[in-house]
Amino acid sequence: MPKVKEPRYHKIAQEIAEHIVNKQFVVGEKLHARSTLAATFGVSAETARKAISVLADLDIVKPVHGSGVEVLSREKAKEFLDQAKESRDLQTTHGEIKSLIAKQKEDLGNLEEAFSLLLDQTQRVRKNNPMSPYEFVPEANSPKLNQSIGTLNFWHNTGATIIAILHEDEIVLSPGPYANISAGDTIYFVGSDKTVEAVQQFFAN
């Protein structure tokens, strides 16, 4: 969504309102003709006319036929400036949010690309080195814990071969059928991709 450009006459209306708030133009004062205001603010007579119309609609000034423009209210001039500032602040915040969203989309795109690359590299490693082990930590409430590999009939039920168990700070390599699997243990095993899901389901049941 492109940034909305504020009309020139609206900016001039704000400048006139600022003069009123700062008491450079006081309530009851009659300002110069539109052509003089146009010269004062460096704009065309038409732009000055539109600016005066905006202020007149808000009862900040009142055009007086044949004698210029009368200043009516300093308070309403301040309200007009406050509302204009809020509008600018809202537009700025909107732009900042859009920038953040765009940045987030870019970051997500980069993350997706990195994940795809990791997946591709992992698949190539598995293909070139099928004996590269997987690792798995069973949930602490699994009913399969505190039993031996042989009792669990692990290979028959999962198709995976356990090559090591990390128990606390000790790694047990090539554990035999009598080795127990305890809570907190990390199991290292080899097998096909399907064995990963099989191992997860086995300990979850």
UniProtKB/TrEMBL annotation:
Residues 120-205 form the RCK C-terminal domain. GO terms for biological process: negative regulation of DNA-templated transcription; potassium ion transport. Gene3D superfamilies: Regulator of K+ conductance, C-terminal domain, Winged helix-like DNA-binding domain superfamily/Winged helix DNA-binding domain. PROSITE patterns: HTH_GNTR (PS50949), RCK_C (PS51202). Residues 6-74 form the HTH gntR-type domain. Keywords: DNA-binding, Transcription, Transcription regulation. GO terms for molecular function: DNA binding; DNA-binding transcription factor activity; monoatomic cation transmembrane transporter activity. This is Transcriptional repressor BusR. It comes from Fructobacillus pseudoficulneus.
